Amino acid sequence: MIRIKRNRTRIYALGYHIPMSAHKARRVIDQIRGRSYEETLMILELMPYRASYSIFKLVYSAAANASDNMGSDETNLIICAAQVNEGTTVKKLKPRARGRSYPIKRPTCHIFIEVQDISLYEGEYLIDPYIHKDYLASLKKPSYSLQKPSYLLKIKKPRWKKRYTHMIDANVYSSGGLWDKK
Q1: Cβ atoms 54, 28 nearer than 8 A
Q2: Distance from C-alpha of 68 to C-alpha of 11, rounded to nearest angstrom
Q3: Dist. CA 60–CA 112, nearest whole Å
Q4: Can you list the alpha helix ranges (DSSP code H) found in the chain?
Q5: Could you count the other beta carbons within 10 Å of the beta carbon of residue 131?
Q6: Range of the domain at 82
Q7: Per the domain annotation, does 4 fall within a domain?
Q8: Would 112 be classed as within a structural domain?
Q9: How many CA atoms does the CB half-sphere of 155 hold within 13 Å?
Q10: Banded pLDDT at 70 (limits 50, 70, 90)
Q11: How buried is 172 (Cβ within 10 angstroms: 0-12 exposed, 13-18 middle, 19+ buried)?
Q12: Whole-angstrom distance, CA of residue 101 vs CA of residue 98
């Protein structure tokens, strides 16, 4: 019997029963998936959503786990996986007029964030398909430019053009008529 020893290069952080909708948390998670740790912290600080604070704490916790367990530097970390699942729904009844009750549903969600140290993969390609080689090369460069990676520049522009011009009927703004009487 041969045992394959797997190298643990991915460290994760879990958040259970976070009091928000999974749909609202996914809106933020989709923005940080595949990005570097430092870039993720900047994005989460500037986002106006309530979910960004909980996700910020989880990303910070995952990076602390990586530096504590593997001794990795925070500048070499990327968010390799991030997902949000629906949790339990807290159901309450609120009293209303004439002795009636109104149901209140408070959704919760479970957030999973996994970070990976890219310094362990010098010269190799990561297995994750959504992390592109050009993006990893841009992370290793010391300059922090705001240019888009080359794989994002290949997106085609729409074929349609602005076909309609502003056409105003002369009778719309005319004075007098049936509706002008007081």
Answers
A1: no
A2: 10
A3: 13
A4: 22-32, 37-46, 51-69, 133-140
A5: 19
A6: 10-141
A7: no
A8: yes
A9: 5
A10: confident
A11: exposed
A12: 9
